[in-house]
Design brief:
Lipocalin, 46% strand, 2 helices, alpha+beta, single chain
Length: 188
């Protein structure tokens, strides 16, 4: 209270406090205002993936059921794919479920990138590229010495169906892919 009275009696001190407060505001907010507005992401061509999908098939290691979604998020700056699959028990293993999340982002002029996480602890970084006709989208993982390499391929077969293939290349042979899972998906 005593300082407030002194400040009111001494307009010069009041002005100094206002200048200091203004300087603090400027220091904190000018960098935010100075940032270039972000370019809107261009998801043209990706529309065939957007929506809710029901999957069928699976191939080895067993037939599974499930579904996934591709949605835009963060005001259309990223795409988010969420996947859930159920695999029945076989003679060799118990029934299990698989959940994963993939975030796709753009960093022009480079191809789109994605980062994948799943309930088994995998984190995989992908580059995403379209075929020339833009009906097939391939996610291929970054090569890492002494680790397998992964490739996911989504092919539009109609407005309501997709063909999906997941391939793995063994460590030391990053271009020698073999099909691990193959399925189709139908738009809900």
């Amino acid at each position: 209270m005593h300082e407030t009275i002194l400040c009111l009696k001494n307009p010069g001190k009041n002005a100094i406090l206002w200048i200091m407060a203004f300087a603090v505001v400027i220091v904190h907010f000018v960098p935010l205002c100075a940032q270039q507005p972000s370019r809107p992401s261009n998801w043209n061509g990706w529309e065939f993936l957007l929506g809710d999908w029901i999957g069928e098939g699976g191939g080895n290691p067993g037939q599974g059921t499930g579904g996934f979604t591709f949605t835009q998020d963060l005001q259309k700056q990223i795409l988010v794919r969420k996947n859930h699959a159920e695999f029945p028990a076989t003679a060799d293993r118990s029934a299990f479920s698989h959940d994963d999340l993939m975030i796709v982002y753009q960093d022009p002029p480079k191809p789109a990138r994605a980062v994948y996480f799943d309930n088994e602890g995998h984190v995989i970084h992908y580059t995403a590229e379209f075929s020339k006709d833009r009906n097939t989208l391939t996610f291929i993982s970054d090569p890492i010495p002494s680790s397998p390499r992964f490739r996911m391929i989504y092919s539009k077969t109609s407005d309501k169906t997709l063909s999906i293939k997941f391939e793995i290349a063994p460590p030391g042979s990053p271009e020698t892919f073999s099909t691990y899972l193959q399925s189709t998906a139908h738009r809900k």
